[in-house]
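User: Design a sequence. Structure:
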């Protein structure tokens, strides 16, 4: 990452609100809060347009999205930061936004006691983290959660991240001052100087290339995150709320190296992204995702292995594992998005990460990134998916206000059933069915 482009700045704490024009403080409309993703190193979808979902809800919801600090600005960690500042400030930005919504959303016609948080990728990971924040303390900030592709990267402790802080000190010259003055030194620097250090380096003991995809991530700080998220979910230390979680068929396809031509290339890619993986771990992974897998266009032979292994480890399994840990304490719904697109298939990426976004918000509302098929042979899936999401926001159940003619969405239970959202063979119809959870998780 270089210095941010024009219009991109750390001074980013802004909120967007879409509300029906006739809404008043007495309307008490359900509130949909969207947390954007970007791997905690950028914000790729924080400003998607919420106007269409408000309209298609019958003007019965209020939509909110916002920005938060990312990269070095949001997730620089050290015991020295803890002593003279805050850790995980990107997550604290999000939490502050939720408190702001609680306090002010009634002004826009929203119900502060009916807020559903929804995130995509790192935003979905953030949703899960807010559920276990402060050991599952219920601050009554949200009553439901939607997560598209929960992103759980390496989740280090503060002590495991001291090397990042030390690198920033060296690159800025602040290593020349006593430890007690290092934070003051960093704060005195121009933003451009700090931004010049806001890039990835190999994790300790790892080679390069490839560089880690996501270098700055939340840490286990002992406060907001008192323990590993999985541990907190296993210990039932979470806010018990209805949830709708899901993933795409080919979660890893846009992240895996297209030139992976051997098992060693796959092992290197995985090890460079997960710093605690040992050779025994990577050997086990390679035996689990053994060749041959079907070849994909425009990619080397072991690209499918890297894609599946990374996608399931980083997105699919976190989503399914969290669902399992929630138990029967709340309503749970899950999906797999399997809508194919000719351009994606020709590029060899299948149904990639977050491809459902255009159906949830409408293809005109995600910053010009929707494939053309959402306007032609895949357009039938848009009202179906959008209405399921709107229904969950309004009723904490995807079925109550679903699109007419669409089937009932059964909940997740001990069998681990998921709704499959896909288009039919005619390419103008949609087809919904159920599958069981992947065994490898």
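Assistant: Done.
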């Amino acid at each position: 990452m270089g210095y941010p482009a024009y219009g991109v700045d750390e001074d980013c704490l802004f909120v967007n609100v879409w509300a029906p024009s006739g809404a008043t403080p007495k309307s008490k409309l359900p509130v949909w809060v969207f947390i954007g993703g970007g791997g905690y190193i950028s914000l790729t979808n924080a400003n998607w347009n919420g106007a269409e979902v408000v309209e298609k809800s019958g003007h019965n919801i209020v939509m909110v999205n916002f920005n938060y600090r990312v990269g070095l600005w949001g997730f620089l960690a050290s015991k020295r930061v803890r002593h003279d500042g805050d850790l995980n400030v990107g997550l604290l930005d999000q939490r502050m936004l939720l408190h702001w919504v609680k306090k002010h959303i009634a002004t826009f016609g929203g119900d502060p006691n009916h807020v559903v948080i929804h995130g995509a990728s790192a935003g979905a990971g953030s949703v899960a983290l807010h559920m276990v924040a402060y050991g599952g303390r219920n601050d009554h900030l949200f009553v439901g959660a939607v997560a598209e592709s929960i992103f759980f990267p390496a989740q280090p402790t503060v002590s495991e991240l001291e090397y990042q802080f030390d690198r920033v000190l060296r690159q800025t010259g602040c290593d020349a001052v006593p430890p007690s003055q290092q934070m003051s030194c960093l704060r005195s620097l121009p933003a451009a100087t700090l931004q010049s250090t806001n890039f990835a380096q190999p994790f300790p003991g790892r080679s390069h290339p490839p560089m880690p995809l996501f270098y700055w991530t939340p840490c286990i700080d002992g406060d907001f995150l008192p323990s590993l998220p999985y541990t907190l979910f296993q210990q039932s230390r979470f806010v018990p709320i209805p949830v709708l979680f899901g993933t795409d068929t080919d979660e890893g396809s846009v992240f895996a190296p297209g030139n992976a031509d051997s098992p060693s290339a796959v092992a290197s890619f995985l090890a460079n992204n997960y710093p605690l993986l040992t050779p025994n771990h990577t050997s086990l992974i390679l035996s689990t995702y053994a060749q041959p897998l079907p070849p994909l266009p425009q990619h080397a032979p072991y690209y499918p292995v890297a894609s599946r292994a990374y996608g399931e480890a980083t997105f699919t399994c976190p989503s399914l594992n969290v669902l399992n840990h929630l138990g029967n304490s709340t309503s749970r719904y899950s999906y797999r998005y399997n809508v194919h697109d000719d351009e994606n298939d020709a590029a060899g990426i299948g149904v990639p990460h977050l491809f459902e976004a255009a159906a949830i918000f409408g293809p005109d509302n995600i910053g010009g990134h929707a494939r053309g098929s959402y306007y032609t042979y895949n357009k039938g899936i848009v009202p179906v998916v959008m209405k399921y999401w709107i229904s969950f926001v309004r009723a904490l159940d995807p079925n109550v206000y679903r699109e007419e003619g669409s089937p009932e969405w059964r909940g997740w239970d001990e069998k681990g059933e998921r709704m499959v959202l896909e288009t039919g063979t005619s390419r103008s119809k949609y087809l919904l069915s159920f599958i069981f959870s992947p065994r490898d998780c």
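The chain has a mean pLDDT of 91. DSSP finds 15 helices and nine strands in the chain.
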